[in-house]
Write a structure and sequence with these properties.
Distance between the termini: 87 Å
Largest sheet: none
Helix content: over 70%
Order of helices and strands: HHHHHHHHHHHHHHHHHH
Number of helices: 18
Structural class: mainly alpha
Radius of gyration: 28 Å
Shape: elongated
């Protein structure tokens, strides 16, 4: 391509995009500037993005705002949204609301979700859960997983809309099927509450495999009880252990009991005591009660505690 022929803005932007994709950022910026000076909104947006992200130039949020604003004032929805993000980041919430709103009214799902967040929190605008629900739902209908989760949450709790657990499940499922661990957990909780345990197991497992500590603990509980799944002490211990390693006090207490009783794992009283103390240190009532009853002063070492822990479990010292 003879670059001397690139006099119209659309061609300049197109060539700039090709250069950007090849990593030729300086050349891309040159042609974006040519087009931007002619009032091309896409070029203005692209320059704003480069300054915003520090791609090919030193990061400069003020310059990013300058160029995003030029495009935003021409009605360029992505620039309006990105301008909102930068003001949101600066905690200039009224400006963020202004620009999110403009982009949201053009149907941009990211802007609808972020505008909903500000209505939900009352930042830059009077708190209004009805408006929050409205914009979350608009974004959710476009497939935005975070918005789908929030619509599910609002239906589940009756915030900004009449409580409807069936609708909550509907929207949680939409987000869960896109991989949202939060939605998978909440879906599991609702099915657990309804005693539809096989569905609860399914969704807890998906969230647990993504590292959600609450899902790991709840999945372990269902394996322990044999609800929705074949009772399996080893699987219960596995998932309690994962949650315990993340600091969940209930899981730590259950790991302690498992080690003490030899359920799902070989008996190991020193490990049982270790996990009991960890749970107690986080304020777990039962663990603290046991430690208090047994007079935990860390005197006499682990062997003294092993005997006391066996007594608590109703086991002999043999």
């Amino acid at each position: 391509m003879n670059i001397l022929l690139l006099s119209d803005a659309d061609s300049q932007v197109s060539f700039g995009n090709e250069c950007f994709e090849l990593g030729e950022y300086a050349v891309a910026l040159k042609y974006y500037r040519m087009a931007a000076e002619q009032g091309n909104a896409e070029a203005q947006h692209n320059i704003g993005y480069m300054y915003d992200s520090g791609t090919g130039v030193a990061q400069d949020k003020d310059e990013a705002i300058k160029y995003y604003r030029q495009a935003a004032e021409q009605g360029h929805a992505p620039s309006q949204h990105n301008l909102g993000l930068l003001y949101d980041e600066r905690e200039e919430y009224s400006e963020a609301v202004k620009w999110y709103h403009k982009a949201a009214e053009q149907g941009l799902a990211d802007a609808q979700r972020n505008l909903a967040n500000l209505y939900h929190l009352g930042l830059g605008v009077t708190q209004d859960q009805n408006e929050a629900f409205k914009y979350y739902r608009q974004a959710a209908e476009q497939g935005d997983a975070d918005a789908q989760f929030n619509v599910g949450l609002m239906y589940g709790k009756g915030i900004g809309v009449t409580q409807d657990r069936d609708e909550a499940i509907k929207y949680y499922r939409k987000a869960a099927e896109q991989g949202s661990a939060d939605a998978q957990l909440c879906l599991g909780l609702l099915y657990d509450e309804r005693k539809e345990y096989s569905e609860a197991v399914k969704w807890y497992r998906k969230a647990a495999e993504q590292g959600d500590v609450n899902a790991q603990r709840n999945l372990a509980n269902l394996y322990h009880l044999g609800n929705g799944v074949k009772q399996d002490a080893s699987e219960a211990f596995k998932w309690w252990s994962k949650a315990a390693e993340q600091g969940d006090a209930d899981a730590q207490f259950n790991v302690s009991l498992a080690y003490g009783k030899g359920e799902g794992v070989a008996k190991n009283y020193p490990e049982a005591v270790k996990w009991l103390r960890r749970a107690a240190s986080q304020g777990h009532d039962k663990a603290q009660e046991l430690l208090t009853q047994q007079g935990d002063r860390r005197v006499g070492g682990v062997s003294r505690w092993v005997a006391k822990f066996k007594k608590f479990l109703g086991l002999s010292n043999s």
